Amino acid sequence: MTTKNDCTDYVAQLKAGYTGAATAPKIGRLPASAHPVSLLECVQDFQDIAGQGQFSVVNTVRSTGSVDAFVSALRAAYVRPPEATSQGGAYSCAAEGYVPLWLALIDADGTVYRVEIPFWGVCSAPDRNVTSALAAVKTAVTSTEQIRQTVSPGAQASGCEQQFAEMAFVGAQMNGSAATKPFFSGQNAGKPFRACYYKLTDTTDKQKPAGDFETATTIAGTPATTIYNGLTNAPTATNAKNCTTPAMEYAVLFTNGGAGDWSVVELNGCKLAAAGSGPDREVPAPVMQVLVAAKGG
Q1: What is the pTM of this model?
Q2: Staple 254 to which of 89, 98, 246, 258, CB 3.0 to 4.6 Å?
């Protein structure tokens, strides 16, 4: 139950690939003999650094005010009687997941106790009295430790996701018989596309494989019209389900400023194109040429 008065062990576990609770420090109830005077939280977060990308980080958060109200609420939760089962019972509860907090209380003698917020109620959720008392504790971030890069500088600068699923392959497995719909919704010929290029290095995932960002560009003018006309009029890929392996390289095209209107175009493999809905299409040669040239390959 006792631990260090810092986040070094937690940071080391995350850097080593720790994601679960199997090797977490023991967590327990605050002993009746303890008299905490401060609080420590190790909080996972994300931090953007201009020109360097985005990083997952751990913030060391320490109390700057009294923790007495939180400690009182915590002790009261330990002895709170169970709540009566409602008529609907557990079946009426929404399925929600809760990520346990890395939370510790520091005694006046320096002893550090790793504690958890008790669950309470018919639907078994973190005790609201305790979470409210914790939120009321005044705190400050005293240090931040980088764990790993989650978004590359290129993806950060371009506005592209670091990873994007190979949805043409996913669509080939799922939407082969769906009704044909307009390939682009709300896009007019001649308007520019933002193209984000991805490379897949692992083809073992047959559910929703995702590639990593490579590069990005904006395609405008005649090339954009070629893409629009080509994919709008492209025939449905009637044998798409025969594609059993995702493409290793593909482009994601965003229209209307990237506001949710996207399509995935495979640059190799079966060379399928998937819009946000409807069946896959066969990628016309002129569209492929424009996308490869725009990438610089």
Answers
A1: 0.70
A2: 258
